[in-house]
Sugar kinase
Amino acid sequence: MTAGRGGALLVVGDVVTDVVARHRGPLATGTDTAASIRTLPGGAGANVACWAAHRGCPDVRMLGRVGADSAGWHERELACHGVRPHLVVDAQAPTGTVICLVDTGEAAERTFLTDSGACLRLDPGDWSDALLDGVAWLHLSGYLLFSEPSRALVAAALESARARGVPVSLDPASAGFLVGLGVERFLELVAGVAVLLPSRDEACLLTGLPDTADAAAKLSRHIPLVVAKQGARGALVARSGAVRARVPAVPATPRDTTGAGDAFTGAFLAALLAGAEAEEAAAEGCRAGAQAVERVGGRPPASR
């Protein structure tokens, strides 16, 4: 699949505030654990948009919903990363917040505590067919599937994209939330998606298979192109029921793995829109993922 045909990338999804707490070793329950704490802009959808712009996509747009408490900050942060924000300001709910607990040991593994706030209150009233004017590709954050209002928005966006011939990609976003949604419901909701970008855990969960390659191959019988992200093991590209390419990871020294999958997705989409084949785009994704894990937070360096 080659998408290079000009036009913008529209990302629809979550814009949240990340509170990143980097600690070493286990948390000391019931008392203090020393940590380095930073408040940063985040959200899987917003991170993807910023990485796509950082990796050369000239026109990236972001539709999300935020609270009035931090709308201006998030708009400025997206803009300084080269993203055109289309943020709906929620008068009732605050901006979503994620506490990212990052163990500063060798793997820099992270655990999320998520308060979705306004971001899962996106609904069909926030969608307009005009959002697709000049758009060559639509990317949806899988977090949108985890509430009824945003599921309805996904259906409206997919219908609009289908009517205009705009291809759609989706990142399942969260193995934990997928358990609650259910596999059959997920596959029903993503019918018509051209590209699925699951993590290793998400691919295995969606298929019930323990091996990522087998899982990616099985998913590619439902979705034309599946790109499974495996972290330090690189990525797999699957089509028509078989793995077609195994893309190696780029060596990196992790500081924080928050947003590494978003970096992969953003760079992958930027390369695809520039005309790269899927395997080449996945290699770009691996390069961006390596860059991401060596930074704190889920965003690339700002362009300001």
The domain at 8-14+43-92+117-293 is CATH 3.40.1190.20 (UDP-N-acetylmuramoyl-L-alanine:D-glutamate ligase). DSSP finds nine helices and 13 strands in the chain. The first strand starts at residue 8 and ends at 12.
